[in-house]
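User: Predict the full complex structure for these chains.
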Amino acid sequence: MRAPTARAQVSASAIEVRGLRKSYGAHEVVRGIDIEVGEGEIFAFLGPNGAGKTTTVEILEGYRSRNAGEVSVLGADPAAAGRSWRSRIGLVLQSCTMPAELTVRELVELYAGYYRHPRSSAETIELVGLAEKRDARTTQLSGGQLRRLDVALALIGDPELVFLDEPTTGFDPSARHHAWEVISDLRELGKTIFLTTHYMDEAEALADRVAVIAAGEIVAEGTPETLGGRDHARTDVSFTLSSATTVAELPGELAAAAQLREDGRVHVTALEPARALHTLTGWALEHRVQLGDLSVSRPTLEDVYLQLIDANEHPQ
Amino acid sequence: MSGVELFAHQFRSDLVRFWRNPQSRYFTILLPIVFLVIFAAIFKGTTIVDGRRIDITTFYVPGIMTLGIISAAFVNLTQAIVTQRENGEFKRLRGTPLPAGIVIGSRALVGVVVAVAMSALLLLIGRLAYDVRLPHTTMVGLVIAVVVGAAAFSCISFAVATRIAAADTAPAATNLTVLPLYFISGVFVPEGQIPKFLRGVATVFPIHHLSRALLRPITDTHGLGIAGTDLLIVGAWGVAALLFAARTFQWSPRAE
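Assistant: Here is the predicted structure of the two-chain assembly.
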């Protein structure tokens, strides 16, 4: 095992990780992973609980030590980095209760004082949509508003890199969409964002690139569109047929691929969806058959993710 | 901001938080005053301390001062430290460029400043309501005892906080320790009325010695009112606690 080195590296990447390993006792929770996040990129780090996700993030944030591997965050080793490095990163931790005795503005101004070149407090409060609540005590904020205050505290130092650890867990759908807007705004500001999340729609809406960790290893990496070969996956065409028509009556090439499933719908998996649809609709018009609830869908990021995690847990 | 400005920036906010917290206000400021008034109303007459006969109200001013100092610099401070650690606030602060020394120093100074202010307030109430007077020469001894006591008990706070896992249990843990000690250490009851065995137990702990160090300025009519040995013992507790805290202090919540 190699000891972590304090040597700074010069690179265009915001984060560079090579062969990172971390054990608690005899249990190795991070088993030699590589990660690279470019400047200005929104990177989503996905994985089930206990996969080594939080451990990895906390090593990158400088909270935890590591057993082996090279880690460079903004050109420095987080394990040895000091105040000036801390002033260049912003953190939204998985959970943090805000001081009940302070108002939004007081808290943001308190944190602004920690940094040499902070953003404007008023503007930052505006950015996260808390302008109307600026003089409210933190105890008067909703869960979503507290999380946005958390984001404001992470941004007040005008960081180059922001870590967002499950930023929308426990949000209702509208609060989640509002938070996504805030995060998208960060992209406009040119920040690099390292995001962990349980929600695939969140990764899909925000991330430029996604990596999936399972049992301490990276099992897939790519854009949300290509992850796990999603772009090459077959398309699912499904519809219902009236009781008068059976699957066997479908045109030959479709009948072979068609399947009547428990949901009462006929599913056709197609490599060339346009061709399959053309054949299907042509046949339906010709035979005056109603195709109920016709839908065309590609596997969602969630489908791909679940497959990846499942394959990892039950290797064949 | 320079180091001093940054410290002042943090300290101002920590002090505001102390003041706006109802629990801090009631237990640290109101409670000692109520205790002084009640004790002075119930108990009448005189008592003998260090061979001198003094009014019982004169006895209770330094006694409740001990309570006030410990409430501010120990009970309340321990609660604040455990709460901020378990809330994740300390962890978050460690993710900012704010130096660790300022986080700890500012919190400790709030305890010390409130302890000093409470001592002054109790002394003033004693003077105005009960005509308790100190020999002028011993003011220096009183100030030293208050500051040493407050500083030592804040160090003990940081040590004890490392042993308390949840914010909920902090008040129980600290009060269960200090309340019995108040009774056997000559804070609520003059030492002469305490059984010898219990008095012996009390001498092991710093509350007994702080209470003696605060009484000395009242009974010592010819000197500076400095109880050297007692102050050394209180100070030693503080230093030992600080060394223990430096080795075991945690920034992240226990739950992690």
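The radius of gyration of chain A is 24 Å.
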